[in-house]
Amino acid sequence: MNGGPTEWEWVPEASAIAREAGAVLREFFSRGVETEYKGDADLVTVADRTAEKMIRERLAAAFPTHGIYGEEGTRDRLDGEFRWYVDPLDGTTNFAHGFPQFAVSLGLERRPFGLAPGEDGKLVAAVVYDPMRDELYVAERGRGALLNGKPIHVTQTPELCESLLATGFPSHKRHQNPNIHFYHEFCLRSHGVRRAGSAALDLAYVAAGRLDGFWEFNLNPWDTAAGVLLVEEAGGRVTDFSGNHFRLDSREVLSSNGLIHAELMGFFAYMFAGRNLSPIPTPKEFAAHRAARAAKNG
């Protein structure tokens, strides 16, 4: 990476830890793992817990004064100036089903002493590691973003109609989540919408210029902390759906290359006002449409 550890304050150690956790995940993935459920349908694996335990131990050794806030329950030293948000396996459902799209995500927040309760600090470091592709995304505040040591930047796509987007859906209570309506509408107004199942990688892909935008409802700080900084350091923009400053406890995230952000926000406003909800055709209507097209084409 540019300049090595003397310039990058937290990323070198965190990268090594993420790679080690990724090796753990690859080993579990190669032989399959037992799964269980937490809540209604959230899959948890032995791999999640093993990787988080290892990450917790390595972070504590490398940064003994830093706090750790992990998906699988780690809550250590949260009153300190620095706090790591740890997702040891972002994409657990993919992992449990043998679908090779998941990542280790480590995001570092600096929380100055005297910060008011509920107020965010500043994201200062990010590491997202895809162990199946051996792709390491890193960023530190003010130093840009890298993929495997090379600078990355968001796209220059100017309009939504030319954009490739991504989103995600909750693993439970999907009937209470409105995102299927947005998914449908954005599919009609873009080059396509991908749903790959790892928010950390979706955000990293926006940063790397593989996607033009990403949105999702009801994410957690460990899902977004690293990816948000990656997008910002790659020249993109991250807000809530209304364009307000993104907060780690926000229940919505909208990220983009910046150029299509206003168009995305405008469309969200339109949708939330109850407009532009296109009806979904019935199977009979769809069959009639296909028949009409076939007749027209000869």
Describe the structure.
Helix content is 34%, strand content 24%. The chain has 298 residues and is of the alpha+beta class. It has an eight-stranded mixed β-sheet, with helices on both faces. The chain has a five-stranded mixed β-sheet with strand order 12-11-13-15-14, sandwiched between helices. Strands 1-2 form a two-stranded antiparallel sheet. Helix 1 packs antiparallel against helix 2 and helix 5 (199-207) packs parallel to helix 6.
- Unreliable parts: 1-6
- Number of distinct helices: 8
Overall pLDDT metric: 88
Largest sheet: 8 strands, mixed
Strand order of the largest sheet: 4-3-5-6-7-8-9-10
CATH-derived architecture of the largest domain: 2-Layer Sandwich
CATH homologous superfamily of the largest domain, by name? Fructose-1,6-Bisphosphatase, subunit A, domain 1
Give the CATH topology of the largest domain. Fructose-1,6-Bisphosphatase, Chain A, domain 1
- The structural class is alpha+beta
Q: How many separate structural domains? A: 2
Order of helices and strands: HEEHEEEHEEEEEEHEHEHEEHH
**Can you identify the CATH class of the largest domain?**
Alpha Beta
Percent helix: 25-40%
Quick one: overall form? Answer: globular
Quote the distance from N terminus to C terminus.
58 Å
What's the helix and strand layout?
Layout lengths: L10 H21 L3 E4 L3 E4 H17 L4 E4 L4 E2 L5 E9 L1 H5 L6 E8 L11 E9 L4 E6 L4 E3 L2 E2 L12 E4 L11 H11 L2 E3 L4 H9 L5 E5 L3 H13 L3 E3 L12 E5 L4 H12 L10 H14 L2
Helix pairs in contact: 1-2, 5-6
